[in-house]
Amino acid sequence: AQSVTQLGSHVSVSEGALVLLRCNYSSSVPPYLFWYVQYPNQGLQLLLKYTTGATLVKGINGFEAEFKKSETSFHLTKPSAHMSDAAEYFCAVRGGFQKLVFGTGTRLLVSP
Amino acid sequence: GAVVSQHPSRVICKSGTSVKIECRSLDFQATTMFWYRQFPKQSLMLMATSNEGSKATYEQGVEKDKFLINHASLTLSTLTVTSAHPEDSSFYICSAVAGQVNTEAFFGQGTRLTVV
After folding, report:
1. H or E element, residue B107
2. Is B43–A46 a contact, with Cβ atoms under 8 angstroms apart?
3. CA dihedral in degrees (A28, A33, A38, A41; nearest 10)?
4. Which of A88, A100, A110, B17 could make a disulfide contact with A38, Cβ separation 3.0–4.6 Å?
5. How far is CA B65 from each of CA B50, B55, B83, B113, rounded to the nearest angstrom?
6. Are the C-beta atoms of residues B73 and B28 closer than 8 Å to each other?
7. Per-residue pLDDT, B51
8. Which of B41, B104, B108 shows the shortest C-beta gap to A43?
9. Chain B residues contacting A, CB < 8 Å?
10. Mean of the pLDDT values across residues B58-81?
11. Is residue B26 within 8 Å of residue B98, measured between CB atoms?
12. How distant is the Cα of A43 from the closest Cα of chain B, in angstroms?
């Protein structure tokens, strides 16, 4: 069975600082991995995804993530945080029948 | 990306009544739709998977008689919360996929249900 673990329920950064949100996965098959962002009272928006091929994946809004099989990780980064990045971020792995298995989420707080 | 529209965005209903939430794929045909429930400050919990023209598959612990799911067409799935109670108050989110194998899921905007 597939699962994901997000380390840190809250991450606080200053505007302009590096953003690093951690995600580790467990999968019995080659994983398809996703990062989603959720703003208050809204649905989820896909930031980026890894399926096959290049292990460094670039997404929207300047985010990127690197798939590291040896570390079973898929951490999300952004070089310079913006106030508008404050939101809830979910890592997910695709399970059977196209179901998504979500992590518990990380709330990103950005201070001026 | 493709658009999934969920309606209503907010609904308040009285205890004991039923409420219907619609999930529509606006520019693609959704072979499969998923319904999630999200408690405050928590992750998404998959409730059920619905395929067009067939009965929904519910996750363990989800009451199928309370949460009725219908996927009558390739662009519309509905979730009906029957005989709602305050503990059913939550944020409900749908997602849709367009194919059978490894396709991207697109999410609706969510519905905030409050049962009073």
Report:
1. strand B105-107
2. no
3. -50
4. A88
5. 15, 12, 10, 18
6. no
7. 87
8. B108
9. 1, 4, 6, 9, 32, 34, 41-44, 46, 49, 91, 93, 95, 97, 100-110, 112
10. 94
11. no
12. 4
Task: Give how far A16 is from chain B: nearest CA, Å.
Answer: 26
Poorest-confidence range of A28-42, B14-28, B89-103? B89-103
Q: Would you call A14 exposed, middle or buried from its count of C-beta atoms within 10 A (0-12, 13-18, 19+)?
A: exposed
> Per-residue pLDDT tens for B84-94?
999 999 999 99
Q: How many CB atoms neighbour CB B53 within 10 A?
A: 10
DSSP state of A28: S
Tokens of B25: 């794929």
